[in-house]
Write a structure and sequence with these properties.
By secondary structure, the chain is mostly helical. It has one domain. The chain contains four helices and no strands.
């Protein structure tokens, strides 16, 4: 499940951010991101609960493959790569909705 790998990466980036002052626009944005992460984590858990063992193994393999592709890249390069992967997934979802 590529979405899980992306969420894991976003969580690592989020938790590595320095804390900012309360009430600042950045703090508000971080709280929104944190809420999104919690929501996505719950959605992923629900999806995984419905997966077969084979699907879970495939998801794990895809996540490990994605991690390997990002190894050695700078944070900016990793973010760009994740952004491109997300755009592809969004396009696939958009095509599936038609």
């Amino acid at each position: 499940m590529k979405a899980r790998a992306k969420l894991d990466k976003l969580e690592r980036v989020f938790h590595s951010m320095p804390p900012s002052g309360r009430g600042s626009p950045l703090a508000d944005e971080v709280r929104e991101i944190d809420a999104d992460i919690r929501r996505l984590t719950a959605e992923i858990a629900a999806e995984q609960a419905a997966m077969t063992p084979e699907e879970l193994a495939q998801s794990r393999a895809e996540r490990e493959e994605s991690d390997a592709r990002r190894a050695g890249l700078s944070l900016d390069e990793q973010i760009a790569m994740l952004g491109a992967e997300i755009a592809v997934l969004e396009a696939e979802v958009g095509e599936g909705a038609k």
